[in-house]
Amino acid sequence: MELFVQQVIAGISTGSIYACVALAVVMIYVAIGHLNFAQGEMAMFSTFIAWQLITWGVPYWVAFFLTIAISFVGGIVIERVIFKPLDNAPILSHVVMFIALLTIITSAAGFIWDFSIKTFPSPFGSAPLFGSSLISAHQAGMMAVTLLLLLALFFFFRYTRVGLALRASADNPVSARLVGIRVSWMIALGWGLATAIGAVAGMLVAPVVFLEPNMMLGILVYGFAGAVLGGLSSPGGAVLGGFLVGVIENLAGTFIPVIGGELKLTIALCIIVLVLVLKPGGLFGRATIQRV
Amino acid sequence: MSVNLEEAAEHPAVAADIETRPLGRDRMLKIVFGLLILVAAVVLPFVTKSFFVFQVTMVMIYAIAILGLNLLTGFNGQFSLGHAAFYAIGAYTAAILMDKAEVSYVWTLPVAGIVCFVFGFLFGLPALRLEGIYLALATFALSVATPQILKLSPLEHWTGGVQGIVIMKPDAPFGLPLNQDQWLYFFTLIVTALMFWMAHNLLRSRTGRAMMAIRDNPIASRSMGVNNSLYKATTFGISATYTGIAGALGAIVVQFVAPDSFTVVLSIALLVGLVVGGVGWIPGAFFGGLFVLFVPNIAESISKGLSGAFYGLILMFLVFIMPTGVAGFIALIRHKILRRGA
Fold first, then answer.
1. Would you tell me how many other CB atoms lie within 10 Å of the CB of residue B202?
2. What is the pLDDT of residues A244-278, one digit of tens each?
3. Is A44 an 8 Å CB contact of chain B?
């Protein structure tokens, strides 16, 4: 039983990584109705920008917020330059563009900062929390930031005009335009927000998994799994889903012998397939019903 | 000739129809063109270096794999970012049969095809409930997980774990005066021709029409008596068969299989090849194969450090100038020429 409790707590602390990434995944899904396969790499690039700023001697929190601002603008620029002209292109073209973006970003990051593994500082320190070895101060801080972010998003979507406009234009672009919302700029704004959240996720994750151009691929799959589990249209669900994926992963790794360290990504695959088959809307998402 | 070009630009399948519509002079041109390609294909291995012969062999192999993906995506409307998994299953089936059971390489292909059909059909069943981006996501996860499954220690006796399996290159049979590369080239050429011929016939059959009906309008097709679920899962199986046979051929030609050759990068390359060649146009697979094999090399020759970035840029450029791939581009050119002639 003690082992079980320990593993659950350890799972929650890895889950906070996935929760963060899942939140970014859901954010862009709500804004543009697509899953961005380049999301992980964009977050990685933002994290490198933060690392560069910190190396130049900028204090951590200044670098933190500066990176968020740069990422926000960067996300908007990417949408305007690359995806706006493809507005009406088939979904496959979008997927291919995401892939092109992914290779460009990875290669550029490798070229600028090379492929060696770098450490990234944590603002919370890495000492164990309350003397317990299960969860470090950084991971506790990470959870706190994720929950704070979630709260901020909730208020943004629920109580601000822009948030409402954003949801409206994702939900029904034609009607949104008719009531005077500039849908195309709302999409750009969604990209900016998603990139900024991705940057936060990247900076929080980097002290744990270390910084290198390929750091996000595996994590992104877990993020997807968390987002699908919680429901792709629900930010709160995605965060909970991320924590659950962390717990499931740890428990399966401990109690099912073969899985151990070898099949961790397969667990994410199984979660995604099972959830999509059994409850496609996820735990908290709305089921999409098509009109015929 | 009355062709709605705008429609053709949006639906590559319409472009393909324009392509196949019999027109007197058009047909002549087609036969001449086909003969030229045939002569070039037969002469090629005798006049070029053996590395180039190997590269062209790989182009054909990728073309088969992309054709498999095209059957699924272009003609049945299902996405997949996970075809590297089926390519890997085909490759490992061939390698294990040759390494452990000493089966002749020729017989590994049908076995790989059958094994992949079963896996594809089974994966196609849960895929029935997924559409568009959800299916892309599930198959993406499959593709990311594949190398880990291949490295699994209980399977190591068969798969060779991280080391993979080395296999021998076959000699030309019947004392034909060909070296190994040339023989493999002709072997692949025969298999490729056979696979494309079968795909062509499949799409013109009752089954093919049902597949396309499901793509165009699932509800209408069901009300016409098509069993959507069965056809979609079967198409997944057939698609996996094509990609698996390509994987088996790839293993024989490269003489080596290892888990890290079948990462998500391969899945992505196949999808990119499909889009570049043209979704829903059979010959597009060859252009896709050319892209998959040669564009990364071109990007590398521009700049070693930034090869990935140049690959991405070339890809973006192609999507911008040819949104429907080579298929739409060729349809456009033909239309211009024909209009001038008329």
1. 16
2. 988 888 888 777 766 655 566 777 777 877 887 77
3. no
Name A136's bridge partners: A128
Spans of all domains in chain B? 5-341
Structure tokens belonging to residue B273: 């090849």
- Looking at beta carbons, which residues of chain A come within 8 Å of B151? 262
Tell me which residue in A34, A86, A269 faces B141 most closely, judged by beta carbons: A269
Can you count the helices (H) and strands (E) in chain A? 11, 0
Max distance between CA atoms of chain B, in angstroms, equals 67
Q: pLDDT for B182-202, tens place per residue? A: 888 888 998 998 999 999 899
Q: Which domains are delineated in chain A?
A: 2-278 (1.10.3470)
Q: Look-up: residue for tokens 């919370």?
A: A124
Contact by Cβ (8 Å): A47, A282: no
B153/A contact by beta carbon, under 8 A: yes
Q: Work out the burial of residue A292: count CB atoms within 10 Å of its CB; fewer than 13 is exposed, 13-18 middle, 19 or more buried.
A: exposed
Specify the length of chain B in residues: 342
In this prediction the pTM is 0.81
How does DSSP classify residue B79?
Answer: -
How far apart (Å, rounded) are the C-alpha atoms in residues B150 and B28? 50
Three-state DSSP state, B103? coil
What DSSP string describes A116-155? Answer: S-B----TT-SSBGGG-SSSBHHHHHHHHHHHHHHHHHHH
d(CA B245, CA B75): 19
Establish if A281 touches chain B: CB-CB under 8 angstroms: no
Q: Give me the sign of the Cα torsion angle A174, A178, A184, A190.
A: negative
Closest partner residue to A96 (CB to CB) among B141, B306, B315 is: B315
Q: A139 and A13 in contact (C-beta within 8 Å)?
A: yes
Residues of B whose CB is below 8 A from A263: 145, 148-149, 152
Q: What is the Cα–Cα distance from A95 to A188, expressed in whole angstroms?
A: 18
Look at the block and give the residue holding tokens 């090399």. Answer: B297
- pLDDT score recorded for residue A149: 86
Given a contact cutoff of 8 angstroms between Cβ atoms, the answer to whether B308 and A103 are in contact is: yes
Give the type of residue at B28.
M
Q: Where are the alpha helices (DSSP H) in B105-227?
A: 105-127, 132-150, 156-159, 180-203, 206-216, 218-223
The phi-psi region of residue B300 (left if phi > 0; otherwise alpha if psi is between -120 and 50; otherwise beta) is alpha
Phi, psi of A2, rounded to the nearest 5 degrees: -65, -40
- Most distant CA pair in chain A, distance: 59
* Residues A131, A70 contacting (CB under 8 angstroms): no
pLDDT above 80 (res B131): no
Q: How far is the C-alpha of B100 from the C-alpha of B116, rounded, in Å?
A: 19
State residue B28 phi and psi, 5-degree precision: -55, -50
Is there a contact between A277 and B126 if contact means CB atoms under 8 Å apart? yes
Domain B5-341 belongs to what topology? ABC transporter involved in vitamin B12 uptake, BtuC (1.10.3470)
